[in-house]
Known about the structure:
Low-confidence stretches: none
Structural class: mainly beta
Number of strands: 13
Helix content: under 10%
Strand order of the largest sheet: 1-2-3-4-5
Order of helices and strands: EEEEEEEEEEEEE
Strand content: over 45%
Largest sheet: 5 strands, antiparallel
Amino acid sequence: MxxxxxxxxxxxxxxxxxxxxxxxxxxxxxxxLIAPLTPPARRFxxxxxxxxxxxxxxxxxxxxxxxxxxYISNGYTYQTEFEKEAIPTFTYKLNNITIKKSVCMQHGKxxxxxxYKIVNSRT
Length: 123
């Protein structure tokens, strides 16, 4: 489900993963793994987010975005696409590299999986 500029996926037992399409957690219970420790209530943020970087020819590129008072990291400038069919998928492009990141949850378990596909197209 995409609502406005946010997404959410669930695991069927009260846990979920949610954030904004830029990966900036703007709500108290945004996070990659929010799970009930005493189901179905008392949810806790187990994993808030992952800050990813990629190194290319000794240069580091941060593809994550964070926001604080008077500060925003610039990973969002590399993001070119967001789509959500069954799972949220983020696409980042820098130079001739495309990175696709997908977030999924295992049904019936408090588990989150982040998958990366990196394509280096030589031009």
